[in-house]
Amino acid sequence: RDAGLAASPSSPNEELACKGMLKATLIAHDAQHAQPLAFVPYLAPFLQFALSQMERWTQAPRAQRSIACDEALAVSDRIVIRCLQLVAAVLACPAYRSGRKSKSDQAASEGGSSARPLPSSEQAVLVLDNILTPAAVGHLVRLLVTSYLTLNDWELREFCSDSEGFLLQELNEEGLRVRPTAENLLSSVMQQHKATAGAVLIEMLQKSASDASSAASGASEQAILVREAIYNAAGLCCYELQELMGFEEWFSSCLVRELDGRHRLQFILRRRVAWLLGCWVDGLRDPAPRDAAYRVLCTLLRDENIAVRVAACDALLKLVDDVSFFADGFDNYVVNAIEGFFALFASAREVDTKLRVLNVVAIVMEGVGERIQQAVPGIVQVVPSLWAAAQEQHLLKGAVLVTVTRLVQALGQQVTTVIDFVTNVVAFSADIQQEHELYTVEDGLNLWLATLRNLPAAHHPLQALFPQVVQVVARDFEFLQVCMQITESLLLLAPAEMLALQGQSMARLLVLVLGDSGSTSSNVRDEGTIMALEVVETLLTVQPAGGVALLEAAGLAHKVVAMALGGQESSLVTAQLLCVLARICAADSSLFLSLVEKIGPAMPVGGDVVACFVGVCVERIDSLMLPTKRKVVATALVNLVGTGKDCILQQLGDIINVVVEVMHQEQRDQLLPGQAMTAAQSYGQALAKEMGEDEGPCGEDYQGRAEAETGRRHRLSSEDAVNNVSLAALLEQKLCECRACRGEDAMTYAMTTVDAEVLQQLQRLAQSAT
Fold first, then answer.
1. CA distances from 498 to 425, 430, 462, 501, 598 (A)
2. Spatial CA neighbour of 501 closest among 446, 445, 455, 550
């Protein structure tokens, strides 16, 4: 076979031999993967063959043409790739580890098998140790770095003529090209022979630094390419090299000098320096070297070669998206970095490059937090052009929407300066009738929500888009959560206008989720039902009478009562349903009674609906975890005491038990260390938390805090009558009304159902409240 390969390139013997080699290495690779221990007897010849072929083909010219398809690969490259893959598979195989016990060994030790045993892992280790001696490992590392990690002639021409296209081609899978396959093998060698391979790499780095300093301006092209390959190896093996070398010293003493070279191929080294800064993030823990890295990368963002700029962009992403990143240390570079990102976006031709840049922009904007404010004027100027550039590319639209959302969050209440642009973007992106909706609806809804949460006041054109929310939910419930949050934010901004202008759309939205009056359950799972009921509760909080009218007109009042009292729903859903009904009763008990009177005859529950409501409240009060909701239910029950109905007197003991329990909770919440709080303040804070103030920092769902909406929630809680009422005073008042309505005898008899200890606690709580 070797004799045949020595023939001329056009020799039929060579073609036949190459085909045989390709087939043999493929069979060996598959067999080793399927039966690693059974392959041990053949391990030595095939491993030696692969290593010898890797050595031999370094003397042959590498492929110098495009690799768009497998047929375009030179035969030599295909053979080398197969050999590289075989050696990498052998090194990475867990069955070839010392101390590992094979299945046949286990069966033999248990006496349960008479079959011929497979070779052991120790035999495989012995074979590998005989072949991969320290000298052989060192030679393999040098061979890989100097022969297979260097750019070949075709790659160099492509890099120089079309750097952006070359970057995208580098993303091809390992196994399709020689260099990525060799990179994978080098990583495997470093993992299995860390000490030997690491020492060789460090020696190569030291020699490279010495050669670079001695030939600063007169380096040959080959020397540049080899140096780039050595740096590539140092980045690929950065994790293993961390214990063997200090990156900070190497960066300051050697890599920084590569930025000032004047060789025509110096851009290759500048790109590799930027890439190394991203690889060695863990080596940049101290503020000083990290600051130097920021300065270098912001400078490289303005390099004349786009490959260098993309590498700097990616490296900044890794530095910002790192546990050691602190926004104050990046403060001086925010504006330069953002401007560099957008300049790179404008000069990029490929969609993949633009997407990479926008992803980095979004993560940097999130990472620096409030410090992005200094870059906001520049972002505002550039964002419309970004959106215009994305009109022809659907994939870009989603990335631009994320950037616009980050901008809105950074602007805060100053979002009014771009509100017309944002409104147009929302109208376009959240329209499910458009062909691009698959790429834009989710991000468009998130942008809509972020805008509403930051607006200081209602914006009518944005409010007028609400029917699009209904259309999204009518199609499916994939984006139900963000749609419910948009609805709630609109209610908080302008409740009266929202009810007047979008009442019908809101009613249809709630019917889509909760189901119409003819159904016995909700159309969504419990989580979705609770989301919708939270919106209903907010509606009844900001507009009690108008909210009840909307529920009645949509047929949802009957549905809510039936679901609450039917006993078919889960405890969490039932508790939220009770909160909705209790909110009506707490605001106006006569309104609640009139509602019950209208729908009572059609209810499937037996007996008095009011009595059933009180019983379910007493039974499910413990399912309500938030004190605000518990107080709403307690306030509703106390309001019903004033009606003097027979069913209320019969359950007076249970009602007072609930009231005392809630009063105890209220008293505990007021007694915070070093701080005295009013009931309104204590319950107002809980309500603000419940309604979303403490949802956490901005994340991928872009639904974090917004100062404007937080203020609206605080105002709502402080103005809510339930938060300001004293349960003790209200109970005393309603007991007096009941006594006047039913007489002293009936009231005295009803009070006998109350436990004496509970009455004593009630008196003590009432005294402490005054």
1. 21, 19, 11, 5, 26
2. 550
**From CA 544, how far away is CA 497, in angstroms rounded?**
14
User: What is the C-alpha R_g of the chain?
Assistant: 36
Cα 50 versus chain centre, distance = 43
Count the Cβ atoms, other than its own, within 10 Å of residue 116: 6
The two three-digit tokens of residue 523, written as one number: 């159309």
Q: For residue 473, which phi and psi values (nearest 5 degrees)?
A: -70, -35
pLDDT in tens, 558-601: 888 888 888 788 888 998 999 999 999 998 888 888 888 877 66
pLDDT of residue 602: 64
Q: What residue type is assigned to position 364 of the chain?
A: V
Written as one letter, the residue type at 224 is: I
Question: Is residue 558 within 8 Å of 599, Cβ to Cβ?
Answer: yes
Instruction: Give the pair of three-digit tokens for residue 587.
Output: 């605001």
d(CA 223, CA 208): 9
Q: Using an 8 Å Cβ cutoff, are 367 and 320 in contact?
A: yes
Cα 230 from Cα 144, distance rounded (Å):
10
Residues of the chain with pLDDT under 50: 1-9, 61-72, 104, 107-114, 671-704
Residue 671's H or E segment, with its range, is: strand 671-672
- Give the Cα separation of 736 and 639 in Å (integer): 12
What's the pTM value of the predicted model, to 2 decimals? 0.82
Q: What is the pLDDT of residue 319?
A: 95
Judge whether 718 and 679 are in contact, CB under 8 Å. no
Nearest to 168 by CA among 350, 343, 394, 348: 350
* CA 207, 212, 218, 224 torsion-angle sign: positive
Report which of 62, 142, 128, 60 is spatially closest to residue 96, judged by C-alpha positions. 128
CA distance 421 to 384: 8
Long-range pairs of 383-391 with CB within 8 A, sequence gap ≥ 24: 383/407, 383/418, 383/421, 384/421, 385/346, 386/342, 386/345, 386/358, 387/421, 387/425, 389/345, 389/354
How open is the CA angle 377-383-389, to the nearest 5 degrees? 155
Quick one: tokens of 509? 């939205």
Buried b (16+ CB within 10 A) or exposed e, 195-221: ebbbbbbeebbeebbeebeeeeeebee
| β-bridge partners, 671 | 676
Work out the burial of residue 672: count CB atoms within 10 Å of its CB; fewer than 13 is exposed, 13-18 middle, 19 or more buried: exposed
The dihedral through the CA atoms of 352, 355, 359, 364 has a sign that is positive
User: Which candidate, 156, 230, 139, places its Cα nearest to that of 193?
Assistant: 139
3-class SS letters over 452-489: HHHCCCCCHHHHCCHHHHHHHHHHCCCCHHHHHHHHHH
What does 269-294 look like in DSSP terms, one character per residue? Answer: HHHHHHHHHHHTGGG--SHHHHHHHH
Q: Please, how many CA atoms are within 13 Å of residue 457, restricted to the half-sphere of its CB?
A: 3
CA atoms lying within 13 Å on the CB side of residue 723: 24
| 322 three-class SS | coil
Tell whether the torsion through CA atoms of 531, 532, 535 and 536 is positive or negative. Answer: negative
Q: Which residues pair with 676 in a beta bridge?
A: 671
Angle at CA 603, nearest 5°, toward 599 and 604? Answer: 175
Three-class SS state of 96: helix
Q: How far apart are CA 181 and CA 174, in angstroms?
A: 5
Asked if 714 contacts 418 with a C-beta cutoff of 8 angstroms, the reply is: no
Question: How many angstroms separate the CA atoms of 290 and 733, rounded?
Answer: 67
The structure tokens 């023939």 sit at 7
